């Protein structure tokens, strides 16, 4: 990005925005869909015609040290959007010692629906990434959110990864979870935190509707659990040896919702 | 000794009648899973716990001691505790601590929280408010929370594994610099807004607590 040697070495700054709104005919339109730098935000074919679908395309394999990447997604009242990814996001070391920042902002209006299902984040050796996911949900909004982290590529030690997931519902805190793993994070690899596992993930389902019986707390095997939150949501937390096994557990949990 | 040190010792003493001895802080499940086998693995377990659940609890306690709204802190604690079994435990311990605190250092703040949360507020919030009622500082409250966060599991492992109590205490002594660091960070965070308080989580603790809660027979309540 910088060519002249006199300029300080800085990372990439890029911002993507997606807005979904009702199209007035029972479907969802995308009045705003913009990406820059490493982002490509494509509208893709939705299995359900009443919902819009957007895919974050491959070019995202990018947060290098010093980069500041952000994506903002707004689902207006009554709209329905699914966001997924075409490939994993790979955090790599950069030319500067600064950490990379990856900020995700999600906003869902009244009666809106968002599926946020990106591919995993992989923390490569030597990288340092600070991820922040903040979701602001209006009363009656629904959300399915998956967040997966893989520590190191195959056979590789991880970098340092700090991640915070904050979800507010109707202006009140619903879920706030922070994970700090990799070299320099005290105790991350032992019995209380990851216990030697190399993949960790969460699937959050926020569904305030009357619906059926809320899921009961229960273990999913030895290394995952279904936990109903104090507010209108259910969280599945899982650790696993690798990304594949992690996805298998979280997919099982996706069957909690019929929507 | 500075003023308040003796009061802090009374509050942080394992014999303070707040019910903590019945809980292992996830150590019973970790012993069964083979993640705690000896003093070295106990040390690593406690280190992870201290810098995750311990930091979060210490920050809530420090914020309560600093005068933040206890009900907002209680809500923040709920959002930081996805496991229903852990929320139940935190509220049960909070209620027990509240009873002890209202006899020991009575005050209107404690009365108001007890009235607003008759089934118990999250224990770190009650601990912080107790510290405030006792005239202690936010940093004191953070120290007490950080210490009990690891002293509980260490003591439990003496019973669970038959670990030599000298070895368990040596583990705690080696964790002292970590406790200082966690208390310092918690005290600093307590000066900011409630929503920015640390939310450090420990996935295995959350997962295994739910499993432990379903065991038909167990030595510790959590």
UniProtKB/TrEMBL annotation, chain A:
Cytoplasm keyword on record: yes
UniProt keyword Nucleus present: no
Keywords: Chaperone, Cytoplasm, Nickel insertion
Localization annotation: Cytoplasm
Record-level Gene Ontology MF annotations: nickel cation binding
InterPro entries found in the cross-reference section: UreD
GO cellular component terms attached to this protein's record: cytoplasm
Superkingdom assignment: Bacteria
Subunit structure comment from the entry: UreD, UreF and UreG form a complex that acts as a GTP-hydrolysis-dependent molecular chaperone, activating the urease apoprotein by helping to assemble the nickel containing metallocenter of UreC. The UreE protein probably delivers the nickel.
Function: Required for maturation of urease via the functional incorporation of the urease nickel metallocenter.
Family statement drawn from the similarity comment of this UniProt entry: Belongs to the UreD family.
The protein, known as: Urease accessory protein UreD
Annotated organism of origin: Streptomyces reniochalinae
Gene: ureD
From TrEMBL, chain B:
Entry keyword Manganese: no
InterPro entries cross-referenced by the UniProt entry: UreF, UreF_sf
Pfam families: UreF
GO-annotated cellular components: cytoplasm
Compartment(s): Cytoplasm
PANTHER family per the UniProt record, alphabetical: UREASE ACCESSORY PROTEIN F
Family membership: Belongs to the UreF family.
Protein name in UniProt: Urease accessory protein UreF
Gene from which the chain derives: ureF
């Amino acid at each position: 990005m910088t060519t002249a040697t006199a300029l300080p070495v800085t990372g990439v700054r890029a911002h993507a925005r997606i807005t979904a709104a009702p199209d007035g005919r029972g479907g969802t339109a995308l009045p705003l869909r913009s990406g820059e730098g490493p982002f490509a935000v494509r509208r893709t074919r939705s299995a359900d015609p009443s919902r819009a679908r957007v895919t974050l395309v491959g070019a995202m394999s990018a947060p290098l040290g010093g980069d500041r990447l952000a994506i903002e997604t707004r689902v207006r009242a009554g709209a329905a959007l699914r966001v997924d990814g075409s490939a994993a996001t790979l955090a790599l070391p950069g030319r500067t010692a600064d950490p990379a920042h990856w900020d995700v902002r999600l906003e869902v209006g009244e009666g809106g629906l968002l599926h946020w299902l990106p591919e995993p984040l992989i923390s490569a050796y030597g990288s340092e990434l600070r991820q922040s996911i903040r979701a602001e949900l209006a009363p009656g909004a629904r959300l399915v959110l998956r967040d997966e982290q893989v520590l190191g590529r195959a056979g590789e030690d991880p970098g340092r990864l700090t991640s915070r997931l904050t979800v507010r519902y109707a202006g009140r805190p619903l879920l706030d979870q922070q994970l700090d793993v990799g070299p320099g994070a005290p105790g991350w690899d032992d019995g209380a935190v990851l216990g030697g596992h190399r993949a960790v993930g969460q699937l959050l389902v926020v569904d305030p509707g009357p619906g059926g019986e809320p899921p009961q707390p229960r273990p999913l095997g030895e290394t995952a659990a279904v936990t109903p939150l104090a507010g209108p949501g259910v969280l599945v937390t899982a650790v696993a040896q690798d990304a594949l096994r992690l996805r298998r557990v979280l997919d099982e949990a996706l069957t909690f919702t019929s929507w | 000794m500075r003023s308040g040190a003796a009061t802090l010792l009374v509050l942080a003493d394992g014999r303070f009648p707040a019910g903590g001895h019945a809980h292992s802080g996830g150590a019973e499940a970790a012993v069964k899973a083979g993640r705690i086998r000896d003093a070295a693995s106990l040390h690593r377990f406690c280190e992870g716990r201290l810098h995750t659940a311990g930091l979060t609890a210490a920050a809530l306690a420090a914020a309560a001691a600093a005068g933040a709204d206890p009900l907002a802190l209680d809500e923040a604690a709920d959002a930081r505790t996805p496991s229903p079994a852990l929320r139940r435990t935190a509220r049960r311990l909070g209620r027990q601590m509240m009873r002890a605190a209202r006899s020991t250092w009575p005050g209107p703040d404690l009365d108001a929280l007890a009235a607003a949360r008759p089934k118990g507020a999250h224990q770190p919030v009650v601990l912080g408010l107790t510290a405030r009622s006792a005239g202690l500082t936010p940093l004191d409250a953070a120290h007490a929370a950080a210490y009990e966060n690891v002293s509980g599991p260490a003591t439990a492992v003496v019973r669970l594994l038959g670990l030599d109590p000298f070895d368990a205490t040596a583990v705690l002594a080696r964790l002292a610099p970590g406790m200082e660091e966690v208390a310092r960070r918690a005290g600093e965070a307590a000066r900011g807004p409630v929503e920015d308080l640390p939310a450090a989580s420990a996935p295995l603790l959350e997962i295994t607590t739910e499993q432990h809660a379903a065991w038909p027979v167990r030595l510790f309540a959590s």
